[in-house]
Design brief:
The chain has helices spanning about 5-10, 30-40, 75-95, 115-130, 150-155, 170-175, 185-195, 215-225, 260-275, 290-295, 340-345, 360-375, 385-400, 420-425, and strands at about 45-55, 55, 70, 100-105, 135-140, 160-165, 200-205, 230-235, 280, 285, 300-305, 305-310, 315-320, 325, 330-335, 350-355, 375-380, 400-405, 410. By secondary structure, it is an alpha/beta fold.
């Protein structure tokens, strides 16, 4: 279905959940910039919150997230106390401005904390930032730590969407990545949620895993089609043990090669589309009735640190260790280490320690990159065009990956797996 260009697939390219990407963040942009950005939020500005819980009950070997073992109860209690302290600091600077629309809990595993603590945290956020409005609430869940109490808790907290980290239903692959969870476990979790009225359920899947081939991926997709989650994300596994030592437990010799990875991505895309899922960007899929698919049909899909989303807010405030906040003119990341994060909050300091200021040119490039990834088309500002960029786009056009319609550059269906390559052409921070 898609042409395979090894030289393009071999290039490391950011996922562009922000622009400039995290590789461009500067340690000199931190708490002062965060305070300015919060103070500049105008009354009534749509606001989204991301809350990071950097703990899991069990650590999976493939994971590239900022997370550690939950361990002793006091560790979680101390972190949650710091989180409440940060909420108070941020709320004071916002001064009641902003209109809360969404709260997303990620990790790690947010269900590593006690259910009662989660309800209290949601109540705190809605009370302080909500202004009387009930926000859309989503959460990432580790099914291995999911209990009937959690299903009731999520219902009480009015959570509307739950994401399960599935990765694969194959027993051999699960053992190879340190994440054993039989399909029956996922079925039980979904039944418990649906019984509580929570029907918006996402699956995160991976290709390029150890021992994975088309047959094993197809078997996993058979279960996915039967269970019918609202959304599916199909990510490529990134094996970088020099960055995440836990990945050293994965046998690199069992990993599929680049061509096999490409074939798996293409096969997954074709199967999910054939089963009625709408393709969003290059790795997300949604059923037609899902708000993300509806946003796609209306050209309203956005991209932020949660991936492809229907969230239209230009301001997203990250809370917790390593969380990233997004403002029109700044992107700011909190201290990654939970201990150092707690120390900053205990000293009544904002937690941002690195980031980037975005001037007019960066904002214009960010818009083009976002449109290319989300809508597969964009109208670049002529001021961004230069001979080098024009030559690169002409090369992609010759390969059949893009085409021009007047001033609009469009990514073709053959170009979909290379969307990030095309977007990267507009990245001035790449060498």
């Amino acid at each position: 279905m898609w042409p395979y260009f090894p030289e393009l697939m071999a290039r490391p390219i950011p996922r562009y959940t922000s622009y400039p990407p995290a590789t461009a963040f500067d340690d000199g942009v931190g708490a002062e910039a965060q305070a300015r950005a919060l103070n500049a939020v105008a009354a009534g500005t749509p606001l989204s919150l991301y809350v990071h819980i950097p703990y899991c009950q069990q650590i999976c070997w493939y994971c590239g997230c900022n997370t550690g073992v939950a361990g002793r109860t006091h560790r979680l209690a101390a972190y949650l106390a710091a989180l409440e302290g940060e909420i108070a600091l941020v709320a004071k600077l916002l001064g009641g401005r902003g209109k809360l629309h969404r709260i997303a809990f990620g990790g790690g595993s947010p269900n590593a904390i006690d259910p009662i603590a989660f309800v209290r945290l949601v109540d705190r956020l809605v009370t302080i930032f909500g202004g009387g409005q009930a926000p859309d609430i989503s959460i990432e869940i580790d099914p291995r730590a999911f209990t009937p109490d959690w299903a009731m808790t999520l219902s009480i907290a009015q959570v509307s969407r739950v994401s399960f980290g599935v990765q694969s239903f194959d027993d051999q692959i699960q053992a190879a990545i340190g994440r054993l969870q039989p399909v029956e476990m996922i079925e039980t979790c979904m039944a418990a949620l649906r019984a509580r009225g929570i029907s918006a359920i996402n699956f995160d899947l991976m290709y390029g895993l150890p021992h994975q081939d088309i047959a094993k991926l197809e078997a996993t997709l058979d279960h996915v089609v039967r269970l019918r989650p609202s959304r599916v994300a199909l990510f490529g596994y990134a094996h970088v043990p020099h960055l995440f030592p836990r990945q050293r437990r994965i046998d690199s010799a069992a990993l599929p090669g680049p061509a096999a990875r490409f074939d798996q991505a293409a096969h997954g895309h074709a199967r999910l589309v054939r089963e009625g899922y709408v393709a969003i960007g290059f790795d997300h899929f949604a059923l037609p009735h899902d708000p993300l698919a509806q946003a796609a049909s209306q050209g309203r899909v956005r991209r932020n640190f949660q991936g492809f989303t229907e969230d239209q807010a230009d301001v997203m405030i990250g809370l917790g260790a390593s969380a990233i906040s997004l403002f029109p003119d700044a992107i700011l990341q909190n201290e990654k280490n939970p201990g150092a994060y707690r120390e900053k909050i205990a000293a009544s300091q904002l937690a941002a320690v690195r980031g980037v200021q975005r001037g007019g040119e960066d904002q214009a490039r960010a818009q083009v990159i976002e449109h290319l990834l989300c809508q597969m088309r964009a109208v670049p500002d002529p001021l961004l065009m230069d001979p080098e960029l024009e030559a690169l786009l002409a090369h992609y056009s010759a390969l059949g990956l893009v085409e021009w319609a007047g001033p609009e550059v469009r990514i073709t269906e053959h170009g979909r797996p290379y969307a990030r390559n095309v977007a990267a052409a507009f990245d001035r921070h790449r060498s």
